[in-house]
Design goal:
The protein has 290 residues and is an alpha+beta fold. The chain has 10 helices and 11 strands. Strands 1, 2, 3, 4, 5, 6, 7, 8, 9, 10 and 11 form an 11-stranded mixed beta sheet that branches. The protein starts with a strand and ends with a strand.
């Protein structure tokens, strides 16, 4: 049996701006996206028995067509008339519903894996064209690394690798609906927008502190009033030495950037002690594209 093991890397948004609501109901975005070392492990195995089967260690994760990884496999296998079957084993490490694109990362990895396993030899652009049918974050998760994302997130410009740093994540025990956040965002009434152009310039200059100083996420204007713990986590990370702290995506995960490994490790231990009973606390770092 042919088997392939892949890493599906989480992402954070270093900057997230919403310019307007589009006639189709989506929002026009400008974002700076960054891969991090936190990842799910995906094992794909070709089977002679037709069909797609998912096994996972994550309680509550759907293993049918509601799962993006399942839909990603089905998309390619149906398009190219693949008669063999596929078993997908998901070892989940990325927290679910966290603003870290875990489901999109899994789907992106499966698209790349199916292309390799069955000899489809699809280019990154061809995979992205198919992936956007399933989710706006999937084209970026196929590319990975540091990128400027525009449109609904599918228009991507690769950036130089962001300055190396350590990333502290804290996911509080609250549920955040992406639909609720975007539905309640008043894009035309935002008083402040993050300086995405300034941030991309700081990345090109390799200036971590300026890049961090220019972080901003307009979705916090909706999420923080409903879940003030997000602001508390940001403040706590800054007090522990983070050069910047922000909510990722529509939340609720907060990340802090640290320029020194020792300081990041100490902050991790202190937050595990202060928040570990409630929050998932994870220490990782930036990752480049593969």
């Amino acid at each position: 049996m042919k088997t392939l093991v892949l890493k599906a890397k989480a992402k954070i948004n270093l900057g997230l701006d919403v310019l307007a609501k589009r006639p189709d109901g989506y929002h026009e975005l400008r974002m700076v996206m960054q891969s991090i070392g936190l990842h799910d492990e995906i094992c794909l195995t070709v089977t002679q028995e037709p069909g797609i089967r998912i096994r996972t260690d994550a309680p509550g994760l759907p293993t049918d067509k509601r799962n993006l990884a399942y839909r990603a496999a089905a998309l390619l296998m149906e398009e190219f008339g693949i008669g063999q079957g596929l078993e997908i084993s998901l070892n989940k490490k990325i927290p679910m519903a966290a603003g870290l694109a875990g489901g999109s990362a899994d789907a992106a990895a499966v698209l790349k894996g199916v292309s390799r396993l069955f000899g489809l030899n699809l280019s990154m652009e061809e995979l992205q064209k198919r992936g956007v049918q399933l989710g706006a974050d999937i084209p970026y998760c196929i590319m990975m690394g540091t990128a400027l994302a525009e449109g609904i997130g599918e228009k991507l410009t690769r950036l130089p690798d962001a300055p190396a740093c350590h990333v502290l994540l804290a996911k509080p025990p609250v549920e955040v609906s992406t639909g609720f956040v975007y539905g309640n965002l008043k894009a035309d009434r935002l008083e402040k927008h993050p300086d995405i152009d300034g941030q991309t310039a700081a990345i090109r200059d390799g200036d971590l502190k300026k890049m961090a100083a220019l972080m901003g996420n307009v979705l916090e204007t909706v999420t923080i009033p409903v879940h003030p713990v997000i602001r508390e986590l940001k403040d706590e990370m800054r007090s522990l030495g983070a050069v910047g702290a922000m909510m990722s995506g529509s939340g609720p995960t907060v990340f802090g950037l640290f320029d020194e490994e020792d300081r990041a490790g100490e902050a991790y231990e202190r937050m595990k002690h202060s928040r570990g009973d409630d929050c998932e606390v994870i220490l990782t770092r930036f990752e480049g594209a593969e």
